[in-house]
Amino acid sequence: MPNEPEHAKEKRPPHRERHNGQGDHEGAAHSPEEFDTKNPQKQVKKND
């Protein structure tokens, strides 16, 4: 038969390494206390 389909493995290019930013953990970790100044529920209310 002249139109024999090729196997799927022959059609596809070889696998390449994939990189995304989610797996890269560069830098230092932050502690939750660093964000207390921006959290409105943890702000100390001033009595004027």
UniProtKB/TrEMBL annotation:
<feature type="compositionally biased region" description="Basic and acidic residues">
    <location>
        <begin position="19"/>
        <end position="48"/>
    </location>
</feature>
<feature type="compositionally biased region" description="Basic and acidic residues">
    <location>
        <begin position="1"/>
        <end position="11"/>
    </location>
</feature>
<protein>
    <submittedName>
        <fullName>Uncharacterized protein</fullName>
    </submittedName>
</protein>
<feature type="region of interest" description="Disordered">
    <location>
        <begin position="1"/>
        <end position="48"/>
    </location>
</feature>
